[in-house]
Amino acid sequence: MDIRPIFEHELEDVYPVVAELRTHLDREEFVYGVKRQAALGYELWGAFEGRALIGAIGFRSAHTLARGAHLHVDDLVVTQSRRKSGVGRALLELAEKEARRHGFDSVFLDSRPDALPFYYALGYAPHTATLVVKKVRAT
How many domains are there within the chain? Predict the structure, then answer.
């Protein structure tokens, strides 16, 4: 398995993999969103087996008053056929390495409830602010 950055000209090819997680996005929204976020420091990396993309991780440097300086993982997806084969672990190890390279002590991410056992097995734990709320349309 080879893990490397995804280049802009490869974004359309990455979409089918990321769409397994981000089912609400179409290809155009995905490409536009990654380009927009990349201008703000978002990095998208891929795990390849030969020429086949089998997983992807997107992360960015962040700083909040609640969390301090940290690396935030926005996206982590492994193709259905390769889940539970170490790909997700390898991608998170990359994120942790990048966090250390930037001088951060922590990595944060949001998770679906069904993925929590995976993160817990890798040493991740709930943050004190575990409840996320949102307002869809501000009035």
Answer: 1
